[in-house]
Amino acid sequence: ALKPLGKTLSKPGVRNVVLVEGVRTPFLQAGTTYADLMAHDLARGALQGLLNRTAFPKEAVDYIVYGTVIQEVKTSNVAREAALGAGFSDKTPAHTVTMACISSNQAMTTAVGLVASGQCDAVVAGGVEFMSDVPIRHSRKMRKMMLSLNRARTLGARLSLLGSLRLSHLVPELPAVSEFSTAEMMGHSADRLAAAFGISRLDQDEFALRSHVLAKKAQDEGLLTDIVDFKVPGKDIVSKDNGIRPSTMEQMSKLKPAFIKPHGTVTAANSSYLTDGASAVLIMSEEKALAMGYKPKAYLRDFVYVSQDPKDQLLLGPTYAIPKVLERSGLTLADIDAFEFHEAFAGQVLANLTAMESDWFAQNCMGRKAKVGAPPMEKFNLWGGSLSLGHPFAATGCRLVTMVAHRLKKEGGQYGLVAACAAGGQGHAMLVEACPQ
Amino acid sequence: HVNTLTRQLQDDMMEVLNEVWGNSAVKSAVIISTKPGCFIAGANIDMIKVCKSAEEVSKLSKEGQMMFEKIEKSPIPFVAAVNGTCMGGGLEFAIACHYRVATKSKKTVMALPEVMLGLLPGAGGTQRMPKMLGLPTAFDVMLTGRSIRADKAKKMGLVHHVIDPLGPGVKDPEERLIEYLEEVAVGVAKGLAKKTVTVEKKKGLMQKVQDAVLGIPLVRNQVYKTVTQKVMKQTKGLYPAPLSIIEAVQAGVEKGPAEGYHVEAVNFGKLAMTPESRALIGLYQGQVACKKNNFGKPEREVKSLAVLGAGLMGAGIAQVTVDKGVATILKDTTTEGLARGHDQVYKGLNDKAKKKSITTFERDMTLSFLKGQLDYSGFEKVDMVIEAVFEDLSIKHKVLKEVEAVIPPHCIFASNTSALPIREIAAASKRPEKVIGMHYFSPVDKMQLLEIITTDKTSKDTTASAVAVGLKQGKVIIVVGDGPGFYTTRCLAPTLVEGIRILQEGVGPKKLDSLTTGFGFPVGVSTLIDEVGVDVAAHVAEDLGKAFGSRFGGGNVDVLKTMIQKGFKGRKSGKGCYVYSAKKKDKQVNSGTEEILKAFKLTAPPAVSGDEDVQYRLVSRFVNEAALCLQEGILADPVQGDIGAVFGLGFPPCLGGPFRFLDSFGADKLVQKMKRYEDAYGNQFTPCQLLLDYAKDPSKKFHK
């Protein structure tokens, strides 16, 4: 039996912004079938898939916003390159945003702003991450020498510059995997976070296993309908995520800690893995969508961004964001029918849930009188999450929003809540309301 | 709250240990402190101070040795879980255990600081350290007493395992960290019992090579020799503790543990009875006393501060202030001056980043608290202004008036002057109760002392505020009364003037330096003149000479003035008593200065010009002036006098400061010497009344 619908979160004088459609390429482990592509290829796949599935007239797209984290320097505005390649109109402007793991959330909320303010009627948002290839640079010394070489006028000047070449010039610079401000790896921070909240290795492994089991079930039941096929040139058509692997607790318990050795609890099996993938959504004003004959999936309602200490609370974004977004819309946790949290690490998810259940944390760290409470597990990430489906950094946000919309439809719920943490100690939460069916 | 090793603790500990050993179900054990930020801070100093004889102290050492030996030879493995201070006897306790886990908390510091108190690690430290770290590192740790952070300790092989501090969770992070440390340590202890964890550390190639080389007795002898030479060079033989440490280590390594432990205990007892140890312990306790605010909590905390003048001092003051996260305006009159000052602050912080004591990100964050500017904008919101402009009363008056026109009523005006009386500066103020002196020492980021000067009009709250700011900047603080030269400069001036006299009498700058350093001063008088600046020295000598008359006479200030005319302003100009060049390490005497000295040559009275008399002429003028400051009430107590002299002016630490020196040397003996000098030179050597009083009654002591 359906529960009676609650109030709508529509606001007087503000246009209703809707999610018309959301798609994604299959998410693949880095270094697998997508290995020889480039980021904008995957982005093209998602954008083209969105056009195909909606049959949306290209010229009606007012704007494109796309997220990415690790930038391919050749396509620094990957939004524009991918849109052109995907056959969008060359008259549609596009820009790229970056905000670590909430980059496509930022792309979507930028779109929401453009539509709500009446600047646009139809905006495409999305994000791409390509971890099979990352920019590895020459060392600073080498770069400096090469740039000076460009300016050197005479042969003598060039030769003397070349003469200064030392072996140390040739040591390459890898993209930073640690937080710039603290020089700490995210997994290391996650391990400390789990320890601070007393989250055991067993709890983390169990949660990771749950994610894989639920993802497998969703995959088998055909619930992951946001996936569009992707044809890799010279290879097969990819139509499934390839990182979903339900293991056993025994096997998982054998793994050694990946970051804090030897006593840490975060392992490869209870962390999200490096993933290639792209996602895209069509965001419109409700009015225009209906006028064009579309059946929107959900309203995109209140959202917040938060930020906190990047050292000790790097991944606690959801804990800070959720009470704020609930207050903005006048809802309580009990009103929410479907939760979709980004799963960076099992320990991180469980630390957030523990923090939300803690009066001590609410009072001492958030300046609140009491805890807000944690989501019940029977409404939480029921179709798997980043741990199992994969986590292409800048593509995950759209996956979360599309998934919560699909779940609301399938489960008959009204309100969905999306939350995610991001590097830099930032976080995001958004309320999604099902459209009347 | 800290844990210290006391008799009581020893008894309690033995009781628990016997219980542990008596229970066959206990397979391994963890030693951990539940006190936040403290494992064991070391032995209780008072326990040593009350002992009347070397034998009594040796006995304490032997008891400690025995307890730790029991742990070392325990049938079950012990894990020391260290969070916070782990010093002296605390570290000796930890290294007697079989395995050490430490948190990387900023509070976790390991050290054997006994040498700084004129003692040695007397509970097995001199015996276990060489085995654990190898001879060279063990000597380094014990002879410098330096603090070792957890990650460094891991690298050195002092601890087996480190754990990172935690952020907030569902309880106080410190409390949770101790819990977490316990969880990890218990895991290790269980592993040790089950033999899944081993105590042996993997040795690197370098370590293996070093061990092999040090296995050769001839090489070891060379090590002892080199270390002894180094110690002698640095201490001039004035400090017995380092030599005793070497002796104890050598005894253990060469003649076996029985002899080693015996020598350690005997030497520990002997050292505790030395005046050097008493002096150093006095300094340690004085320093602790001078890190407290005795003027109460200020009405409002200084949250933003402005420094006037971006010169060496101004920029230094700005650096130590932004370093503690206080928003600081650095104001100068020229962009060049400002840029130089900004660079100085940047360099100070960047050097720390290079040494990895802070990250480059922390450097940038710290630097963001600094705002450089040429005008007075924003001064309407500052809580304190410290001026560090040129030492000229009219300039000081000018800036005081300018500042008072823009600052809020509660704002404090502090003057960083080394000699100008504060009441004369405050004479231009509309609110003299808010005016105070804050005399920093150069280089500000390295020198620990801050001399705060109050006038009879300075309010108590102003003083409390200045002390609070100084403490925040990490300073050791003395609060003194107002007068020309206050306390420190007033002691320094007659000493420098006497130094000039000695130079005029034909003792060369190098010889003068070696006589002063040979007495225990870290820097010789000639070098000191160059470091302070010949112009500054002349300025101070002349000003104070005017204020105090013939007592500040002796040497001829014209020597300095002639040097200035020739451009010999000291290190900053490249030439002073010495010639400075970036290339040469060994500095040469400036022949130009030698010529000047010839022109001002005076004949040395043979009766008081031997090496020892030269030393005591310098020291007696210093000490007499210090005593006068106490007599006149410039100094509130001898403790501050000792701390100021040692930390600000480099008075020999082994003597503990002028007052400690009078106690141990005897005021009567010094008065006798001074009378001889008085006969030869005149009233600059006339002992003050306080000295005479103490000379008359040898039972009178400055320190109880």
Automatic annotation (TrEMBL), chain A:
Fetch the InterPro entries from UniProt.
Thiolase, Thiolase-like, Thiolase_acyl_enz_int_AS, Thiolase_AS, Thiolase_C, Thiolase_CS, Thiolase_N
Residues at the active site: 101, 391, 421
Q: Entry's PANTHER family?
A: ACETYL-COA C-ACYLTRANSFERASE (PTHR18919), TRIFUNCTIONAL ENZYME SUBUNIT BETA, MITOCHONDRIAL (PTHR18919:SF153)
NCBIfam families (alphabetical): AcCoA-C-Actrans (TIGR01930)
What is the protein name given in its UniProt record? Trifunctional enzyme subunit beta, mitochondrial
Instruction: Recite the UniProt keywords alphabetically.
Output: Acetylation, Acyltransferase, Endoplasmic reticulum, Fatty acid metabolism, Lipid metabolism, Membrane, Mitochondrion, Mitochondrion inner membrane, Mitochondrion outer membrane, Transferase, Transit peptide
Instruction: Identify the main location.
Output: endoplasmic reticulum
Reactions listed under catalytic activity = octanoyl-CoA + acetyl-CoA = 3-oxodecanoyl-CoA + CoA; an acyl-CoA + acetyl-CoA = a 3-oxoacyl-CoA + CoA; dodecanoyl-CoA + acetyl-CoA = 3-oxotetradecanoyl-CoA + CoA; decanoyl-CoA + acetyl-CoA = 3-oxododecanoyl-CoA + CoA
From TrEMBL, chain B:
Record-annotated 3-hydroxyacyl-CoA dehydrogenase C-terminal domain positions: 485-580
This protein's pathway:
Lipid metabolism; fatty acid beta-oxidation
Indicate the annotated site residue(s) for Important for hydroxyacyl-coenzyme A dehydrogenase activity.
439
Subcellular location(s) per record = Mitochondrion inner membrane
Active-site annotation: 451
Set out the biological process GO terms recorded for this chain's protein. Answer: fatty acid beta-oxidation
| Boundaries of every 3-hydroxyacyl-CoA dehydrogenase NAD binding domain copy | 305-482
InterPro entries the UniProt entry points to: 3-OHacyl-CoA_DH_NAD-bd, 3HC_DH_C, 6-PGluconate_DH-like_C_sf, ClpP/crotonase-like_dom_sf, Enoyl-CoA_hyd/isom_CS, Enoyl-CoA_hydra/iso, Fa_ox_alpha_mit, FA_oxidation_alpha_subunit
Gene Ontology CC terms, in alphabetical order: mitochondrial fatty acid beta-oxidation multienzyme complex; mitochondrial inner membrane
UniProt keywords (A-Z) are: Acetylation, Fatty acid metabolism, Lipid metabolism, Lyase, Membrane, Methylation, Mitochondrion, Mitochondrion inner membrane, Multifunctional enzyme, NAD, Oxidoreductase, Phosphoprotein, Transferase, Transit peptide
What GO MF terms are annotated?
enoyl-CoA hydratase activity; long-chain (3S)-3-hydroxyacyl-CoA dehydrogenase (NAD+) activity; NAD+ binding; transferase activity
- NCBIfam families named in the record: fa_ox_alpha_mit
Q: What is this protein called?
A: Trifunctional enzyme subunit alpha, mitochondrial
Phylogenetic placement of the source organism: Eukaryota, Metazoa, Chordata, Craniata, Vertebrata
